[in-house]
Amino acid sequence: NQSSLSNSRSQFSQQSSKSCYRCARWHNPDTCPARNWDCFTCRTKGHTSRVCKKSKINVVEDTVSEVEEDEFEISCIGVVSDNQKAFKIPINVEGNIVNFEIDTGASRSV
Hints:
CCHC-type domain-containing protein
């Protein structure tokens, strides 16, 4: 009885140590329910769209073609004032004091 308990524990640890190539969850692919499912992306049986290799390829191709085909113009009107001093803070970097500008992400310091 003790040996069957340790044997089932080792099987569980082996199954949960790898992610399933059919669905990306942590179990044995041979017992995965997705082996009987149709992928929503490529319509092939045996995996989910989450792990579909065709969807990853299409995303890259679509992104590249959109960048190549799209044309756009950027216009920006604004006033930039150099009257404000940037906020800086001295920081010790390997024994040297270096003044770093604080980047708050805001276009102006208040």
